[in-house]
Amino acid sequence: MSGAEREPRRTELGAIGQALAILADRWVLLILQRAFLLRIRTFAGWRDALGISESVLAARLRELVGHGVFELSAYRDGRTRHEYRLTERGLRLWTLLMAIQVWERDWVAPGGLPPLLHERCGRDAEPYLGCGTCLRPMSARDTRTENGSPVATALTGPARRGRAVSRAAASPEAIGSPRLHRRTVRAGAPADPIGYRQASMEILGDRWSSGVLVGAFLGVRRFVDFQSGLGIAPSVLTDRLRRFVDLDVFGSRPDGSYRLTDKGLAFFSVFAFLVDWAQRELPVPAGSAFSITHTFCGTASRPVLLCRACGGPLERRAVRFVLPADGAPCGGAPR
After folding, report:
1. Rounded distance, CA 335 to CA 316, Å?
2. CB distance 217 to 274 below 8 Å
3. Angle formed at CA 260 by CA 259 and CA 263, multiple of 5 degrees
4. H helices of the chain, where?
5. 131-186, pLDDT tens digit by residue?
6. pTM exceeding 0.70
7. 3-class DSSP state for residue 315?
8. Cα–Cα distance, 190 to 93 (Å, whole number)
């Protein structure tokens, strides 16, 4: 195996880099979404629901078990079978996956998100991002990153930061996924009535795209800085930047820089939950941790989803989707 193809050890990555290596894949996101929304737990259930090949599904489930997101549980059905249950680490991804759907509701397909009933107030929650300390709305414009971790440190860890530039043109190691799978976003794929939209998959369904977006939220603006910070090949970076401009997530400036548009800035809620999950659930190399501070209350706050109807925090066990197919409530998450 050549140096460019060598699989990076997870310990070489920063916490956010590790999170992207686990989650930045179309099939992983859809497997998790079905686990939460439809409570699918079996291999056959995902295979039939997603139309995914058995070899790809087996690989993704094996990785998710290895990363502690799922655990295997035996049950009897005439013979001993196994199902995949979300661990506590996996269950804590609920807010991240919800934030993706909220962004789609507001910026991709208005009205496309099924009603989310908040059982505490009995109304459609219409979730939005809030500060866990003051319970006020929170956005990219009223937050700041404490300790200013640059993208190379946040994604790859301080030990690898100095080597990012020299490896930029040849290596996917900076945020490389342990599986090094091919790009899994399929242009022109048919719309999935309960799955994530194509725009979300363009951003999060591919490790390089998600890395570019994280870099933008960490203050990266120029092509050369994305390239050196991420260790991404110029041709790949050119493609991802073009896609982001086409999606109106980035705007290109006359000086050659790229800035997040309002649509891109709205993706901050997904970024906030990704950072929170990564730094709480995964090893954080010394010197790579940072916090997102809400300037309204001045605290490094844990992000939460708030109910627009009552203003209270939304908890996984206290919400239910109502799917339009049959009007019956569908669990927002496994109980």
Report:
1. 8
2. no
3. 150
4. 15-23, 26-37, 43-50, 54-66, 88-91, 94-107, 151-156, 158-161, 198-204, 207-217, 223-230, 234-246, 262-266, 268-281
5. 999 999 999 999 988 766 677 777 777 755 443 333 322 233 344 444 444 444 44
6. yes
7. coil
8. 26
